[in-house]
Amino acid sequence: MNVDEVLAGLTLEEKTSLTAGADFWSTVAIERVGIPSVRVTDGPSGARGAHIPGVGGVPSVCIPCGSAMGATWNPALTEQIGALVGREARDRGCRVLLAPTVNLHRSPLAGRNFECYSEDPLLSGVLAAAFVRGVQSREVIATVKHFVGNEAEFERGSISSVIDERALRELYLVPFEHAVRDGGALAVMTSYNRVNGKWNTERPELLLDLLRGEWGFGGLVMTDWFGVVDTVVSARAGLDLEMPGPGRAFGPALLAAVKAGDVDESSVDDMVRRLLSTFDRFGILDAPVAPVAPAGDLTEDRALVRRAAIESTVLLRNDGVLPLDATAGVVRRVAVVGPNANAPRIMGGGSSQVLPHPVETPLAALRVALGDGVDVVHERGCVIDRSARPIGARGLVAPDGFDVEVVDGEGRSVARQSLPDTKFLFFEPPDAAITKGEAWSLRVTGTVVPEETGRYDLSLAQAGATRVSIGGAVVLDGVADPPPPGGSEFFGLASKELTGGVDLVAGRPVDVVVEFFAPAGGFAFGARVGFRLPEPADLMERAVAAVRDADVTVVVVGTSEEWESEGRDRTSFSLPGRQDELVRRVAGACARTVVVVNAGAPVDLPWVDDVGAVLQCWFGGEEMGPALADVLVGAAEPGGRLATTIPVRIEHNPSYDNFPGENGELRYGEGLFMGYRGYDHRCLPVRFPFGHGLGYTTFAIGAPSVEAMPASGAVAFEVRVPLTNTGGRRGSEVVQCYVAPVGDTRLARPPKELKAFAKVELDPGESTVVSLTLDERAFAYWDPGQSDWEAIQPRRAQLTAVEAGITQDRRAPGWQVDPGTYRLLVGRSSADLPHAVDVVIRGS
Ligand code: BGC
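^ thats the input. predicted complex w/ beta-D-glucopyranose below
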């Protein structure tokens, strides 16, 4: 499509209409000139399709979460995963993917850490660029988010992240810079938060000067959902698209602003030109909606996400218990305990959630991997459900799902749909036969099978009116007895909970009917009918008894999408519930205990020295269970390395004094000294350092040789590192190179920073030379300049001779490489760096 020609033929009304979405997941079409509506989809866990989490749709491939991908340290693999998700988006008719999330792991407690890659900006940036390349190889636009300073969920819609310029430039902007410059990302999503008191949607210095000017970004900038305030300021600042629609700040409001003379029509032209030419890059305007024919559950997709899960699994500690030797008859009885052992905790919570393909839990997968010769016993040990699970989830399963009858305001049955469980939320009527604003209702029916016998506590949160019957009897009546508003479900749009209970017998099917009434008008309509499994008093004792005569115990602990979710930070570093006690007691009863930590972010591991091995498997996507089983039995090697430090105590984390926030501000008080930069700076011991991870073989990292690369013209070095697999099986190593300025520095610098890495896989006895490149940026810092330099000179001269002698005048902000000596530290983690080579950078 000739964008300029089309643009010239559009009316002002049409142009402004393009600047806001049409609905929740698509842009406005202008059929008169052949501009189609373009559909968007989240996101970081996979391409769900154009609908909100948990509401209809076909299953999608659920990839390992961001922090898992971070732990792979493997850009090539991340690119393949990106290509898979890009294909899935396209198959669903969506040409814009709302991922990757590239905010940094500033605090282990941040609710969306699981979506993000790492605490390190370089690792995050390299992986983000790779993911973007993969997605866009399918001609689907990747959206890097959330730009910028969105490292917490606390008051996320209004908080001001107070970040100094150096920390912004050297840490928080870097992943975006990589995604845009190296990955060629074609869309950026602004964040909900403010930075230093100003909305990011209202910053021309960010959206125009930096993004487009400095980084050469040629794509579109969209808001986070409902995340824009001012029409005029945002239109002038370089924001192109308000999502979702219908527009509040843009669209009709922008039209009015132009008519009132507050915004130039040329600004609107710029916005529309950027929007349309971005779409045009992939021919989207000419062939907009690909056929909606998702590929289904493909073996090759399963294989790829399984490899990614394996490569993300970090073996934190191993006294030799792993891999389990199931073949030699050494292991005859394995106890698999813990609240996450038989629960599919494969993704975090919030907008990134997808409806996954069938998932094998760690317990089920381990049973398969160990084979018939090994007796596997299971106990939950304790419960960590934060709220009730929707009926249909594990524990009270609905083998055939739920049938949904959609009824219009006149009582006519207009459509039939299906749901996997009893949780749904609608912002639009559930069927096109119902006019928006009209009343409608649903009748959801299904048969469930209890997994345990006992009293099931039930709860109902609703936005609408809901009546729930089980086995023919009404057990929760939100129609006759509506609970008050103010609940936390559905982004706070649901009521408080109505509670009840029912006695059920394991294996005995029972009918469930949920009647839901949506009143006329209203914004959101939904219900979550939940249950809690019976919680016998002796749950933990049973687990301890089960492990006593096991040869090996695998304890699967962790969190869930309820504990790690968009919209909410964690309030504790500890594992939820009585899991620490469970690990301690199990380890006391079984000498060979392996702990699997199934969480998207670091958690406290106070018992770490009392157990045989610890694996961190994150939220590993739909193949997490089988991948974990592969690693446990040694069919695969744990390839992951920590992309984020696990501290000894949360109080040591550099953000601790400034997390969450208060009084509308979240101060990034540690500045540059975030993550391992901060622990290093304060010489704090850590539980497991950044970059750490063991394997099933051993590697020797030889002394590196360093050579300047004069041909490149600028500062550049090639670091060549000999690497040999000295163990008995194939495995991978991540060779890491950190740069540390030697001696005094003009401005504060972190003790060392990751500047290059490579993941290498070798056969036993095989050697290679790993080549790492360091460019000028590897030695640079951002000099914010000193704008008041002139003004303070007289005072300086007056006061002391010493100050008068300071002549370095760096008023102009910019990247700066100071001449001097820099130490290149090479090894396998930020705390295991056996080799040091000094290089000298001379002044020019
Ligand atoms: C999230 C975004 C997401 C959007 C659409 C927002 O609440 O912050 O990351 O892409 O919703 O689901």
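The first strand starts at residue 39 and ends at 41.
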